[in-house]
Design goal:
Blueprint: H1 3-10, H2 22-29, H3 33-45, E1 49-51, E2 57-59, H4 62-73, H5 76-91, E3 94-101, E4 104-111, E5 126-128, H6 133-139, H7 144-152, H8 167-180, E6 183-186, E7 193-201, E8 207-216, H9 217-220, H10 225-240
Antiparallel strand pairs: 1-2, 3-4, 3-8, 4-5, 6-7, 7-8
Amino acid sequence: MSVEKTLDILDLFDFKTRELTVQEIGIRLEQPQSSVYRHLKVLKDRGFITETNKGAYRLGYRFLEMAKIVKSDINLSSVAFPIMQELCKKLNETVILTIVSGLNVICLEVITPDQPIKVSSTQGKILPLHAGASSRILLAHLDDKIIHELDKKNMLEKYSDYTVTDVEGLLALKKEVLEKGYAVSDSEVDIDVYAFGVAIKDIDKKLVAGLSIAGPKNRLIAMDEGYIINSIFEARDKIQAFL
């Protein structure tokens, strides 16, 4: 029995073609139905193919198990890093990958450009959850109770005159971020630092990380905001394709 012919059957399935009958498979592969049946039996016995109550065939749940294995082997940093490098080169500003850690945010990866003035952010740095685009994009996708918890624990520190530290203000900002799809910050943690952030989610639409671009305010506001946002979204989509 040809392994290649068996794999040819699997290659027939995609998002548009979810089910196929033996006759349809035979026609597409120019194989006799008796041969198709033999290949399908092997695939069905191994869980790669399942038969519907109408006698058609579709991909089996074995692929879900294998997808989980592949997914668990993918390291977020290793996936994101080369894409972040592309984004840094494209916009010539600092690119930051952040994750939630308890009631704080951690800089997982930071890539800085070859610029005379850089944003001072380092890998492993702990950031506040309520201030800055790289953090607030994460906060926006968490439950409202987190904001209340930060307030109760006196963690809503004011880093500058632009830092929002009241619960109502943060809830309003959260709503704004979710409506826009991205976060923007201006001097909230470091004076004259401007930033944009977007959320990275996995295949189940669960929050994984935040991707942001940050730099001196005068340089970023001189750039087209739409171009910046689209560039970040494109980078985010490339990362999400692996999650």
